[in-house]
């Protein structure tokens, strides 16, 4: 089974966000409007924050070891961390993620993260969206939504934006910070979240209508 051989029967929207761009809020409202399931991030901000506090001596094998090492404060050897230490384990994760996403979106769905942008790239009913914005606005929104102070939200932003990109590069060989893979990029520092959701819903309906 692979992503290129699967076509969903309903609308599909993939979302990637720079930290604090409001994708949880937007994704839930898009899913509700389209009448499909919303799949949130596999790794939450809180989980990535926990991983960032762990040192290499606490690491497991494979992907979690990479996450923990990448989150370590000593970044002198980050380039080496992008060299797969357990390719078989990483490949298993990719296969399982692909299978899970294809199954979960068979009838349509809104997916946040999970590398769905590339996994479902050839699904003709899928609209691929990125939410972004100025760092200051994103940090302020994230702090308010998570009930944390600006300093902590700023630390999360620095770590999370980098580690999510590194995970995508390691497992799927793409950089989500570049806009080449998206149909639509919305600056939620200028467009409010409800309007962003309306734009995505409208674009998704046009995509599905044209596909037939």
Give a written overview of the molecule:
The chain has 212 residues and is of the alpha/beta class. Helix content is 51%, strand content 11%. It has 9 helices and 5 strands. A 5-stranded parallel sheet has the order 2-3-1-4-5. The longest helix is centred in the C-terminal third of the chain and has 23 residues. It starts with 11 loop residues before the first strand and ends with a helix. About 12% of the residues have low confidence.
What tags apply to this protein structure?
single chain; 212 residues; alpha/beta; 5-stranded parallel beta sheet; 9 helices; 5 strands; globular
Give a summary of the structure in a few sentences.
The chain has 212 residues and is of the alpha/beta class. It is 51% helix and 11% strand.
Q: Structural class, judged by helices and strands?
A: alpha/beta
Report the helical percentage: 40-55%
Multimerization state: single chain
Pattern of helices and strands: EHEHHHHEHEHHEH
Shape: globular
Largest sheet: 5 strands, parallel
Provide the fold topology:
Elements: E1 12-17, H1 23-34, E2 38-39, H2 45-52, H3 62-70, H4 78-81, H5 87-104, E3 109-112, H6 116-119, E4 126-132, H7 135-146, H8 150-172, E5 184-187, H9 193-211
Parallel strand pairs: 1-3, 1-4, 2-3, 4-5
Helix pairs in contact: 1-9, 2-8, 7-8
């Amino acid at each position: 089974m692979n992503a290129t051989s699967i076509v969903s029967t309903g609308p599909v929207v993939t979302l990637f966000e720079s930290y604090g761009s409001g994708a949880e809020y937007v994704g839930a409202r898009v899913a509700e409007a389209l009448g499909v399931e919303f799949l949130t991030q596999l790794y939450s901000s809180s989980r990535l924050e926990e991983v960032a506090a762990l040192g290499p001596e606490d690491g497991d094998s494979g992907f979690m070891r990479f996450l923990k090492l990448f989150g370590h404060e000593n970044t002198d050897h980050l380039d080496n961390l992008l060299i797969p230490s357990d390719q078989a384990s990483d490949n298993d994760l990719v296969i399982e993620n692909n299978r899970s996403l294809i199954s979960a979106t068979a009838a349509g769905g809104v997916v946040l993260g999970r590398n769905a942008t590339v996994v479902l790239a050839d699904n003709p009913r899928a609209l691929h969206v990125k939410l972004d914005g100025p760092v200051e606005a994103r940090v302020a929104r994230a702090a308010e939504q998570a009930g944390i102070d600006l300093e902590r939200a700023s630390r999360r932003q620095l770590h999370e934006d980098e580690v999510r990109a590194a995970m995508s590069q390691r497992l799927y060989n793409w950089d989500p910070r570049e806009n080449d893979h998206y149909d639509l990029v919305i600056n939620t520092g200028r467009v409010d979240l409800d309007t962003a959701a309306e734009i995505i819903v409208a674009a998704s309906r046009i995509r599905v209508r044209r596909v037939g």
